[in-house]
Each structure stands twice: as structure tokens, then as C-alpha cells.
Structure prediction request, 535 residues.
Amino acid sequence: MKLDPHYYPSASRRTVTFGKHGMVATSQTLAAQVGANILREGGNAIDAAIATAAALTVVEPTANGIGGDAFALVWVDGKLHGLNASGRSPRSISCEAVKALGHESMPAHGLVPVTVPGAPGAWAALSERFGKLPFEALMAPAVALAEEGYAVLPVASQLWEKARVRYRQYDRPEFAPWFDHFTPEGHAPAPGDVWRSPEMAKTLRAIGDTRAKAFYQGELADAMDAFSHQHGGFLRKEDLAAFTPEWVDPISVRYRDHDIWEIPPNGAGLIALQALGILEALGDDHRDPVESLHRRIEATKLGYVDGLRYITEGEHMTHSVEQLLSPAYLKARSELIQHAAIDPTHGNPLMGGTVYLSTADDEGNMVSFIQSNYEGFGSGIVVPGTGISLQNRGWSFSLDEEHVNVLRPGKLTYHTIIPGFITKDDQAVGPFGVMGGYMQPQGHVQMVANMLEDHLNPQASLDLPRWKWVEGKTVEVEPGFPDHYIQALERRGHHIVKCTDSLTFGRGQIIVRNNATGVLQGGTEPRADGAVLPV
Prediction:
């Protein structure tokens, strides 16, 4: 990978970080320190990823929690492994049952959209297969942070307050534990305020001591079952006991002499691969930055409309991954991109919303890991006495019987969280990811194109102002997006909306390895409270 470590765009805010023996990059400094310490104590990249992920549930509860899902791409011994730890819908739920509660579509909050949490199972599965240190030792730093407390950082404080306002609209008893747990003094913690959770410490210790069995079969499962049953939810202990993370074969496309890897559906990584495959079909025989922006936006739109049309749990998809990523289909889709912006529609291949972290060690192992409660804290439901904030992943389901992602009992829904990975010539280049709901595939396209076509280093790639396709010809851009590019894109028919807040444009991390020297380059998100720490 030809990345210029000295080149930065005008928006750059940090310098690229180099390391030789290991590296951890994530969106919260204390969590990054946890992972770096694990590497120093003899753990490998997998151990560091698990410990960092557990710590993030404590120090960045605004974006993930013990009751969320997780995905991972893991490079070990010259091979890339995929882990899908997304949970299924409860066995007792159905479209009819949800509609009987008065909902015309899946609600965003409350117990109805709660699906089986997969994150604790992911931690245990990764440790059992690839870890070096005892699992309880990986939970210990998160336990300490929860018990002793920590000073809340600025971005987390801002998101905390937004969640408090969001959940205040629900005057129902099942939401009270969220306020009791996360706003015990009646307000969100301000930057610098110390927040602690003895309940989360107890839960994380139980997960560590039992390799997550307490969560899926023991006292924690009993607590989730009882609270859900008390307030009319669908989640039951039987649903938790049936959960098993799934090891999967990652999927990829070729882009600029590299292979870009994602988790297969139900994850939305297919969208990013389609967009990159369309761009590869177009080629890079130009040096016009406006043309590059236009192509990337249009390719992303085309990937997204296909993804929203076709992605659900693999066995329920009407079109296969192979069909949607076939060179002939991607070429046909690329031919739709002309000088002017299009209003995209899905194609037919038969005819032609989180926290992210990446780790690396001196053994050559690398991890791309992402976990999420979906929208901020998730459902707004905290199980009393446990600190478990349950995700609202079921919000993605459709109640339309004709939709491919229609709600069914025991089904995996369309999933926004996606870890990414780059290889070249069967060697690891490194993990990358961008959190942020439906921004994630778009962020993947932008990060990969920034590095492999524009040759920006990881930090410079993350620093560039971002764009986000919304619908039709509407594209939102960050406050720092150059005005002359906005004007040029509008002349091509794009409707550009300049936003005042960067928090909706995702937060990413990148680590890449120079396989000739072994030196690591890392970048961390300037839109978050994060850090990239070399070891």
C-alpha cells in the first residue's frame, strides 16, 4: 500500500501514529489504554480487542453496551476469520403480535425491538478460539473502570444528554431503570464528571468468571427474562440460551490491487463491497477530484438501494452474495453513473447505524471489531441491578409481509454494524471501520478510496470532511466540506445539505501494516474522544 505518511489534507488535526510491536485504536482513550496494557502484559491482538470492547461498554455507553451485538474480522496465522455475533429476534415475536400492541411499524424504543444480545458471546468465542490470557483477566479492566469510576469525556457527555432528552418522551415504568442507572442525579454527566456503575462491574465480573454463561444461561439471563416478562416484552431466557456466535467466511471484492473484506449478510458490508466494485469497474483513469467525489457518491447510492432491497439473514435473501457481487452485474451498475446525479433504484442481478476498534500485535495478528446497541444507548431499557442496556436492533425489521427483511420469530435482521479489513497478495494490510448506523458502508467506501486511490495515510483519511447520501439526490456534508466542491456537485444535479454537526458522520479507526518493515501506521477519529496507542 503506497501511503504517504507526510501528506495531510487541510482539515487534518492529528499526525499519523507509528508503532512496531502492537497498536490499539478506538474511540475512547481509556479503552485504548486498556487494550495497550493487555498487549504489554503478554496478550495478543485478540485479547486486546476483547478487553477494549468490554471497557467500551463502561466508558462509552452512549454507543454500545453489554446488551448489544458484535462482529469481528480476525487475521491469525495468515488467514482471515469472520465472527457474526448478532442476536436473533425472540421466538415469541411476530408481525401480528407487534401490530396487536398498536404499532404500524417496528418501534424504535422499549422492549419490543429488543433482540438477543451477542456481544458477551462474541468476547467469549474470540477468547476461546484465539486468546492467550485468561478470559476473566480480560474483563478485569472494565470491572475496575465500572467500580472506581472515570471522568466522562466531552463527546460522550453530549451524546448522553441527547439520549436523556430522547427517552424522556416515554412515561412508562420500563424506562425508569435507564434514568436511575445513567442519570442518577437527574441529568447527564458533564465533561469531567465522574460516573461509576457497581451494577455493570458485578455483571462484567460474572461474565468473566463464567465465560459469559451467566449472561445466557444463569442469573443475568433470569434477570433479563423477568424484566421483559414483567413489562410485556418478548425476550425470554430460552432465546438467550439458544444463542451461539457464528464463525463465517468473509466476503470480498478487488479494489485498486487490494482485496477488501466484510462480514457476509445479515451484515451491511455487502453495500460497501458493491460500491467499491462499481468504482473498480469504472477505473481510475482521471485526476479530477470532483469526478472522484461524484463517482463515489453515485456508486454508494447504487450499493445502498440494492442493500436495503435485498439484505437480511442469508437464508432469507432472494439474491445471493455471488450474484450481487458478480463482475458482470457490477459493471452493468457502473454504466448507470454518468455526468449528472441519478435518483437510484435497485437492480436485479438475475437480469444482467456503535463503537469500533482495531488492534495489532507483534505476532502478526490483527482484529477489526465492532459492537453496538444500534441507536445510542439502544432501546432505552436497562435491566435493574445489572447495568445491562439492551439494544434496539429489532427496529430494523419490517412489518411488511412482502419485504425481504420482514420480522419473523428467531430471525437475524439487517445489520448496520460492519468491520472491514484489507489484504494484498494474501497478506494482511489491516483493519478499518467506521461506526455510525447507516453511515458505516459509506464511511468504508470513503476510507478505502482515500487510502487506496488518493494514497492518504490512515489519519489523513479519517480527517477528511465526509459526505453522507440520505435519499434520492440528497447528500449531506460536514461543516468543513469545501464550498467549491459543494458548488461543483450541485452543478451535476446533487442536492447538497451542509450540516452543522459532525456527530452523524461516523467515527472510524484504521491500522495498516507495512509488511516489508513490520511497522504499523494508525489513525483515530477526530470526531470522537479516541486514541491510537502504539506498544
